[in-house]
Design a protein that fits this description.
Number of strands: 0
Radius of gyration: 19 Å
Mean pLDDT: 81
Number of domains: 1
Largest sheet: none
Shape: elongated
Low-confidence stretches: none
Oligomer: single chain
Helix content: over 70%
Number of helices: 9
Length: 192
Amino acid sequence: MSASTDAILQLLQSHGLALLFPLAVLEGPIVSVIAGWLTRLGYFAFPWAFVVLVLADLIGDAGMYWLGRSGLQVLPDRWRRRLRIDEPRIEPLAAHFQTRGGRTLILAKITHSLGFAALIAAGAGRMPFGSFLWFNLLGTLPKTLFFLMIGYALGQAHAEIDTWIWRGSAIMAGLATIAVIAWLFWRKRRHA
């Protein structure tokens, strides 16, 4: 058992749903796995654990959205110039989230790897907050249920599951990066 998952397990056994919410906001999938296992052991009622995990995920994601939305104002001018974040670069992002924002959010939530980037981009692209919450909820429900059920069935292996989640996320992030680079290369060659 890893130290972090062991600590989360002990905290949740001691403090229950009251601590599940803040831990799920901060840590995410492994907390859902551990909550599934604790549900199986009788510490939590399944419906309550599911509701708390979904709400925590939505609150955390809303924080990322607002970070993206207010990012231009929060970052110092020097950083914005260095990162090349300016209004002309935000306009295509805004157009994307107006037309394909829902699809992007659901895909990002389900693949898990680049979810934080999509959440921040949705805010930076000024996606309407109501639409953001709706599509985010549509992606959060199956993802949370999946991790909760994995924990219910295989929760005693939560340390190994944490490793699998990390490795899977790293692989997905790598594949997504390769796909974006290939797409940019293809687009540049097509317009050359």
